[in-house]
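User: Can you predict the 3D structure for this chain?
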Amino acid sequence: MLDHFPFYLSLIVAILLLIMLAKRIKVAYPVLLVLAGLLISFIPGIPTIHINPELIFIIFLPPLLYEASWAISWKELWRWRRIISSFAFVVVFLSAMSVAFVTNHFIPGFSLALGFLLGGIVSPPDAVSAGAILKFVTVPKRMSSILEGESLLNDASSLLIFRFALIAVATGQFIWYEAALSFSWMLLGGVGIGLLVAWIFMKAHKHLPTDVNIDIVLSIVAPYVMYIAAEEAHSSGVLAVVSGGLLLSNKRHLFLNSTSRMRGINFWESFCFVLNGLVFMLIGLALPEIIAGLEETSLSTAIGYGILITGVLIVGRILSAYGAVLVTLIMRNFITVADSRNPGYKVPLVLGWTGMRGVVSLAAALSIPVQLSDGTPFPQRNLILFITFIVILLTLLVQGLTLPYLIRRLIIPNLDNALPEDKVYHTIKKQLAEQAVLLLKNKYSEQLDAHPALQQMAKKWEDKSEIVNDEVMAEDCKVIYLDILEQQRKWLHDKNEEEQTLDEEIIRKHLLHLDLEEERLRFI
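Assistant: Here is the predicted structure, written as C-alpha cells:
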C-alpha cells in the first residue's frame, strides 16, 4: 500500500487537472476521467487496480447519496413523485427485463436469471454524469428535478433486482411470495431505519454541546450509520441514506446554526468532488483486470454483446419515457397529476437520452461472487463484468458527449411558465426588507428610537439597499438583528411551503444570504 501511495497521490492531482480541463472545453468530467483512466491503465509499470466492491458500496455510495439528498428539494420531489417513481422503479424493472430476454436469446449459456442479474446491474443511470452535463446547458426546472429525484431512487430498485436475481442463480429457484415479502421489507425497513437514525442524529445535534467541527464529523458519520444499519437488517441501505438525508436536509434550520450550515456545505462539496473524481477514474483503471478475466469468450464477441445491451438500454429508456408521458396523459382523466399538459416529443426524448451508467453498476458487477456455494465457478461472471464495463463506457461517451448538443438543438420549452429567476429573487428580497422594517417598528419601536444603528438598518431596508454597515454594533442591537434574521428565515420557510410552484433554489439563496449576514454580525 505504501509503495503505491505516490501513484494514488498523483492520481488525485491528475483528476484535478482533468476536471479543470473538462470545464475549459465544456465536457462532462466523468467522460474525461474514464477515458484518462483507460489510457493510464495501459501505461507499462502502472499498478493493476483491483476495485473492492465493498469499498464502493460502503465507502463511496453512502456519502454521495447523502449529499445528493441534501441538495434536492423535497417539494420538487413530492410534486413530481409519480413520474420520478415510474422512472426509478418501473423503467428500471422494464430495462432489466428487456436485458434479461435479449441476453437469454442472443448470448449462449445465459439463463433468464443471469439476464435479470445483468439487467439489475446495468439498469440504473448515473446521477453524477447527468448532473455534470446539465451544468453546461439550460433545461427547465421540472426536468432537472425529475432527473435528480430519479437518481436518488433508481440505485435502490436496481440493487433489489440484482439481489433477487443473485439468489435465483445461486439456488436455482425463485419463490415469488418470499421475494414479495423480502421486497416489501427492503423498502419499508430501509426507509424506516433511515428516518430513525436521522431522528437520533438530529436530537444529538440539538441537545449535545456540539460545535462546528463536531457537527461536520457527525454529518460524515450519519450516512454510514444509516447504510450499515439498514444492510445489517437486510433492508435497503440506499433508501435508508436517501430517506434519512431528506429528513435532515428538510429540518437543518432546526438543529444546525448558521456557521455549521455554511461550513458543512463547503466541506461536503469538496468531499464529494474528490469522491466522484476517484470513482470515475477507477472505472477506467479497472479495464485490464476485467479483460484478463475474459477466457471463454473472444474480445470481439464480448464487445459485440456489450454494444447490443447498450442499444437495448438506450432504446428501452427512450420508449419508456414516451410511455410515461402517455400514461400521464391517460391518467389525467381520472386523477390529479402535477401537470396535465402534453409536453410534446422533446422532453421525453431528452429524459430518455440521459441514461449514462456509472460506478454503482460496476460495483454491483464486481460484487458477484467468484464461486457458488457448492464451489463451482459462478456462471458467466467475467462476461457480465465486461459487458457492464462496455455499457458504462459507451453510454458515457455516446450519450454523455451528445446530450448537450441534443438539448441545445431541441430548444426545450419551459412549461413552468415561471417568471425569470432574478425577478422572483428580487421580489422576495423586497418582501423580506418589508418584513424586517415592520418587525422593527412593531416589536422594537423603543429600541429603534434609541439606537442610530437600528435606524440606519431600517432606512437601508426601506431604500431596498444592502446592509453593509461594518461599524461596531451594541450587543442589544445585535440581539435584535439576530431575531430579525430568524423571523426572516421562518417567513422564507413558510413561503416555500405555501407556494408550491416557487423554485426552492431561490429560497435557499436567500437563506444562505441570511446565514452570511449572521456570520458577518459575529465580527462587528
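The radius of gyration is 26 Å. The chain has 23 helices and no strands.
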